[in-house]
Amino acid sequence: MRVKILLSRFLKYGTLLTSGGFILAVSLQIFARFFLSDVPPWTEEASRVLFIYAIAFASGLAYRGNYFVYLEAVYAGLSPATKKTIDLISPILSLVLFGTCAYFSLTMVKMGFDEYSPSMQIIMFGPFLSILILSVSISYFSLIDLLNKIKFWKS
Q1: DSSP-derived secondary structure letter, 112
Q2: What is the reported pLDDT for 155?
């Protein structure tokens, strides 16, 4: 339970910081386009990286809170047994998909040490790490969801 709380806080504060940074970078870019003679070249790339991180941090929280979109109209018309089966299969598929993504993103993160971003000249390890954060957080929360549904199904 402690891991869940720490991960949730990490994701929450990461979402807040990167979203705030994204807003600041875009605001600076807009201000510079209207009021300065030169736009800082790094603002576009910084806003892109911050946006990617905001999504990566928020995705785990969205999964935990069940905020992803699903087809309610189709789901409502199904039988209770089919709903139960779908509710059990859904976290399994999410765990397999994002677990696989996490595994293969490790290679991509390692490759990021050898690459640099075009305008900011930062090591691409940082931006590539966002995929690992997204995958691990959704995998973790889908595993918890699966275990809770199995526990509920047995009772």
Answers
A1: G
A2: 65
Question: The dihedral of CA 137, 138, 141, 142: what is its sign?
Answer: negative
* 62 vs 80: CA distance, rounded Å: 25
DSSP state of 116: B
**Residue owning tokens 């892109």:** 48
> Amino acid letter at 130?
S
**pLDDT the model gives residue 97:** 97
- 45 Cβ partners below 8 Å, 6+ apart? 117, 118, 119, 120
| Residues counted in the chain | 155
CA–CA dist 134, 139 (Å, integer)? 8
**Residue pointed to by tokens 């891991």:** 3
Separation between Cα atoms, residue 94 and residue 141, nearest integer Å:
10
**For residue 122, what is the DSSP state?**
-
pLDDT of residue 41: 86
DSSP string computed for 10-50: HHHHHHHHHHHHHHHHHHHHHHHHHH-SS--THHHHHHHHH
Query: Strand, coil or helix: what is 123?
Result: strand
Whole-number Å distance between alpha carbons of 50 and 62: 18
Q: Which residue has the tokens 């990286």?
A: 49
